[in-house]
Amino acid sequence: EAQVTQNPRYLITVTGKKLTVTCSQNMNHEYMSWYRQDPGLGLRQIYYSMNVEVTDKGDVPEGYKVSRKEKRNFPLILESPSPNQTSLYFCASSLRGLGTEAFFGQGTRLTVV
Amino acid sequence: GESVGLHLPTLSVQEGDNSIINCAYSNSASDYFIWYKQESGKGPQFIIDIRSNMDKRQGQRVTVLLNKTVKHLSLQIAATQPGDSAVYFCAENMDNQGGKLIFGQGTELSVKP
User: Which end of chain B has a smaller Cβ tally under 10 Å, C or N?
Assistant: First the structure.
């Protein structure tokens, strides 16, 4: 089954404790991206990757890092999480570009206390 | 500046009626417009897209209309069903910006039986 898998689904952590949210897709897609979703602000792009070893900033990249060492995985790294990073995070992938037929993961709800 | 917004945050319709969800955008250089559906507890799901050189595109029970003159996008759902209840997002994308997507804030569609 074609899917985008994020882990964990839920995470509560403390300020400053490094964490990684994993994202994996099994569709051999070139394009992957991370979004955060906040009430009243909708979905905002954090980082995206057009291929292996090619990443670029989205609209809200501060406080986040990503890596794309292999096509299927695109982890989101928070080196020093802060409470303002409490949010719902989505990973997405697509074959031709993130504007068309993007597949989203189920989401990771992160709480930073 | 770039922005994608929705006219109404909520829409309530009777089962069997047609639904129309509207979206305004400000960037006339956008090449793609996409509608996503997000059900509670799930990631956004691609519904339909349209390129800027088109005025109309039809899918199964859904139609997207693009009016570039007034920078307006709409999603029409025919014979709305309870399973259509969700939040609907419009998003825009420009070919020369790779995978960058700008989402609107979303409209919550509620279908009354």
Answer: N
Residues B62-68: contacts with CB under 8 Å, at least 24 apart? B62/B35, B64/B33, B64/B35, B66/B33, B68/B28
Q: How far is CA B14 from CA A19, B19, B77, in A?
A: 45, 9, 12
Q: For the residues B67-91, what does the mean pLDDT come to? A: 95
pLDDT cut 70: percent of chain B above it: 88
Q: Does A100 touch chain B (CB under 8 A)?
A: yes
User: Among all residues of chain B, which has the CA nearest to that of A107?
Assistant: B43
Q: Is A9 helix (H, G, I), strand (E, B) or coil?
A: coil
Going by C-alpha positions, the residue among A39, A34, A40, A37 that lies closest to residue A21 is A34
